[in-house]
Amino acid sequence: MIIRKPTDILSSEITDQALYLNRRNFMRAGLVAAGSIGAGWLPASASANTKLPGVKKTDWGKEEKLTPYEDVTTYNNFYEFGVDKSDPSENAGSLKPSPWSVVVDGEVAKPGTFTLEDILKPHPLEERIYRLRCVEAWSMVVPWVGFSLADLVKRFQPTSKAKFVVFETLFDPKQMPGQSRRLLEWPYREALRMDEAMNPLAILAVGLYGEVLPNQNGAPLRLVVPWKYGFKNIKSIVKISFLEEQPPTTWNLLAPKEYGFYGNVNPKVDHPRWSQANERRLGEIFRRETMPFNGYGEQVASLYQGMDPSKLF
Ligand SMILES: Nc1nc2c(c(=O)[nH]1)N[C@H]1C(S)=C(S)[C@@H](COP(=O)(O)O)O[C@H]1N2
Ligand SMILES: [Mo]
To answer: From the CB of 207, is ligand 1 less than 6 Å away?
Structure first.
């Protein structure tokens, strides 16, 4: 196995923001030229800049100042397209988010393979403004367009044995060239405990800023669990499985001391190689204090009562 040491990966992850700022105008032009990055549940001509129809605006996070679209779509973590923050927006044009299907299996009464269209039909789309906070101490505020994960889970009717729900990213090195290197153990895999998945804050996103999700942000379907570090927010999901036992998850497998299973944002637990006490919002100069559970403690802290908070990173 040629899995790189976490230290190698992480030092290469730290890209100076100035670098990407210089490149971003160029890249935005490239994205538009790349053309029809379509989604099957929209007309074939739909692209990453296609407006999503019928999105219900909500009050979630409307007091927040949004991170500019440019920053949200050009400063990304998506190892399937490279380890630098600018790589995903430059390379993700090879991903074909349409047609797309999702396998649902494990401890459910209604397993099967569903197209994205099937999944979306009964789920009205909402816009919710959520923060996303990466372990590398950058953060952003994004108007995500998605639907409740809990509602989707209920449709498949998990059995009483279902204790965890695990998500898997597409594995296709032709579409995702980063997968021909053993940077991580592919496919990327992330999981939630059942009660976390049923929390009303957790959504599956299909868009941002009112438009179809750009490939680099995890088209056509990605998880958004705002009280957890970015790595839990798995992108380009093709499989959802319900399990009795806690499954292995990608970053936790690679570096268990640095990335726990829970990945709850906790300013008091430092990453072994840097403080987690504060963060820099993309597009801003001054750092701000990181909040426990990324500021969503009121809604989720009760899920972890009786658990050792130092183990919840
Ligand atoms: N499949 C997959 N999902 C992924 C990642 C990845 O490398 N592959 N990176 C994660 C990490 S570490 C972060 S911080 C967020 C970044 O999401 P964004 O690019 O939309 O900001 O995606 C997460 N989801
Ligand atoms: Mo991250």
So the answer is: no
